[in-house]
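Checklist before submission:
- one chain only
- standard amino acids only
- sequence pasted in full

Submission:
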Amino acid sequence: MPELPEVETVKNDLKSKITGTKIVSVNALWPGIVKDTPYKVFVKQVEGAEIIKVKRRAKNLIISLSNGLNLLVHLKMTGHFLIAESSAEISKEGKWLKAKNTDLLNDRQNQFIRIIFYLDNGMILAMSDMRKFAYIKLVGDKELQTFLSSYGPEPFSPEFTEERLKKILRAKNIVVKKVLMDQSKIAGIGNIYADEILWAARVHPLSVSYKLSDQDVKAIYQNIKKILKLAIEKRGTSTSDFRDTSGRKGTFGDLRNVYRRTDLPCPECGGSVKKITVGGRGTHFCPVCQKEVK
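Returned file contents:
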């Protein structure tokens, strides 16, 4: 699932490429991608509206329109936005037939187009989603704020201090990885970056969060910021399905230390990276470098 760095990458792309454009028309090859609003109503509300702002909150994209409504988008497991010239052609099955950008044509992950927005600047905004889990909701400002209020602080926000993290970690008797991935506690961290953050902090994913030392908390805090910042600079991780709006892979995957590196050498000690399950998610760590705090 795209996490904070991937969604931030998409947000930055969309912000620079589609802000100020008007949605001329919409074509859903799979109308089910639109949730909670009848598709015909959705089209009527969206067509003719100008895109005035693009934001991110946690793993959500928010595209604000000139009519006071917002497109609330969650990419889920395999969703990603793609931008191309209006001369591009897409089949009824959602495959690119013609495009100047060869990444759109040649990468299989880009061949599952579910909805297309035609913009007045001669571009199209399309979403590819192999598993059909991604969604787009049309919501007003009040409904949007209610929805977003359930999320914890953003890792780069002023309110996310080391002291705030300490309170979050020591509030409950659960393992630290579960805390990092709890969106109501900290927004945007998922499986990939939780593994990488804990390895860099030398904290075992099964360590009981409230028993972590001040030094452990400090290391986790510093590496949350360091690793997420680096992942944004590298335009995310594409070890699975994620692609940016040009259909290209992010390169943070080249810098992974433990995530999806089961039985490979730990870059620090040379021991084997191990995999366990935490909260139903595959979890990667080095048993030598990361000692469990029980």
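Reviewer check: The CA atoms of residues 22 and 247 lie 23 Å apart.
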